[in-house]
Structure formats: structure tokens, C-alpha cells
Amino acid sequence: MRERALPLRPSQYDLTSRCNLRCEGCLYFSGNDYLGHVDADEGGGVERFFAAEAARGVRYGYFSGAEPSLVQHKLVIAARHLPYGVVFTNGIQRISAEVPYRIHVSVWGGAATDKALRGADVQQKQVRNYRGDPRAVFVMTLNARNIDEIGEVAAMCADNDLALTFNHYSPTARYSRFIQGEGPGDRYHAISSAADNLVLQPVHLARAHDAIARLMDDATCKVVYSHEYNALIHDPAGLYPELLPGSDVAADCAVRLTNALRHYNTDFSASSEKCCTPNVDCRSCRLYAQSYATVLARATRSLRRPQELARAIRMWRVWCALFLNDDGLAAVASAP
Ligand code: SF4
Ligand code: SF4
């Protein structure tokens, strides 16, 4: 890793405020931070922006949107400057082979639940677009309604030569108010209620843990996950029991924004929020990219302790498999 890829020096880029779905409880459209930014679209400006990012040392991009496949010319430009990255997409439009990054395709459950929660039937398109594509990892966002559908999603991935991993629905402040009847609905807050919503309770976490553990032991599906992460992420206490004094912000989260780790809005202004998902409640945050970064940072911090080195290496291997589209590096990372 040191020879081939490090330092990664990541930053995060929202590429557009447009999306072609309306997912219930969408993190992006849950707050006001996305408002007031006009998408930067002019080719020369995008090129200069990513050239400047590379010049300040960034080598890894987290690309999201709303929906980045709608502006994929920006991904092609970014790839000329940042060697590594991951694109978070809903998979409806295929991202061109010119984009060399990992591509994470979000899935919200089995076909019927996915359609009910996202407002459209998209799984056939996702599979058609990414079947057998080595860049793609399908990411099932677990929520209170879909734990029993893990097997269905795993079968879909296995049938189509697709890798699978898991995210956890993490409620925003607005979603929590909405389900309590304290806030107005809109197209992203429409079908949930106090009695029937997406929030993972301890009972869901326990069932998810057990279902994923069984799946990892079943060789029919390519599951990119680890037993250690499975235990950590499903701990009902969460990853962030401690908050910064006098705030609601997690004390030990590896993706809080700094001068180096920046999050850019769609007009390429730098965000001044706590992180890239500022509407999420830190106490119940289990978002996978963020959680992997935190778990990895903690493991790396302790790797000089005797038993911890092997654990840190195992964590890095999973991270590489999930977030790097680099066959040579994957071979290094998976070497015994
Ligand atoms: S979750 Fe993603 S795909 Fe769904 S509405 Fe939000 S931005 Fe669009
Ligand atoms: S990534 Fe999650 S835990 Fe970290 S600051 Fe953002 S909401 Fe809080």
C-alpha cells in the first residue's frame, strides 16, 4: 500500500443537485445545505478545479450528488487529475468505461421494497448496466423494512456476477422529526410514520448481523465485508458514543471536515459543515463509507500494539477491495 497508493489524501465532491429518483428519507435532500449552489458545469472550470485539487495533494475522490451519473463528463475530467476514487450512484444510467473509479450502486431492498422506497422500479436497469463490471459493488442500504430481504439481494448479485456490501440507513434530523409528525412531508419524506419507518432498532441490528455473518460463510455470493466490521457496526451502542463537548458532533469520526479533507458543494465552494452528511445524527450514524474510514483510522492508530497489526491489515484489505478499483493493488492487498 505504501509503495503503490499511499498517501490517498481524500476529499469529497457533490457533482450535481439533480436526481432521477425520490428515495424516502434521502440524506442529500433532507437539509438546506444543498440549496443555493448552482452546479458548476462549464468544462474549463471543472478541469481547472480538479487540477487545483490534484495540486493541493488530493489523490482520492468520493464523488456523489445527488446523482453523479447525470453529469458524468465531470467524472471523466476528475479522472484526469485524481488517480483513485469511488462514485456513489443509483445505477439507473451506466457510468462510462472512461471512468476508472470504483462504482457503488445503491440498492434499498428486494425489488418490491426498493420500488416502494425509491419511487421507481430500477433494479433491472442497475443489473443490466453493471452485470459483470469489475468496477461495480452493489451496496444494500439496510433499514427496518428490508433485513429479511438480504438473501434476495444477495441472490440477485450472485446471479449477475456482482459484488455486494452493506450500508445502514442513518436518520437525519428532518426524517426523525417527520416520523414523529413534527415536520412537513415532501417527495423525500412521504410514506414513513412513527409506526412504520426505516430507523434501525437493536432488534434489526442483531438480525442484520446474523444474516450477513451467514452470507459471508456462503461462498455463492461475492460479499465484500468482514466479520470484525460486522460486529462493530451492529453494536447497538454505535460507533460514536462520545460527542465533542457542548455539541452533537461525534468526537472520534475520521471524516469530519478539515482543511485537508474537504467537501465541495455542486458549485465547488468548500462546505463549512461538520462532514459530507451534515443532516445525519452522529449518535446513530452508521453510513458505510464514513464508518469504514473511522474504523480503519482507529485500527491504524493502534497497529503498533502486538495483536493489532494483523487486525489493521485485515481492515485495510477490506477497505481496498471496497474502495479501490486497482487490480494490481487488490492483488497486493489480498496476498496472504
Ligand atoms: S438517495 Fe440518492 S438516488 Fe435516492 S433521491 Fe437521494 S440522491 Fe437520489
Ligand atoms: S459522518 Fe456521521 S458520525 Fe461523522 S460527523 Fe458526519 S454524521 Fe457525524
From TrEMBL:
InterPro entries: Aldolase_TIM (IPR013785), rSAM_sf (IPR058240). It comes from the Bacteria. This is Radical SAM protein. It comes from Thauera humireducens.
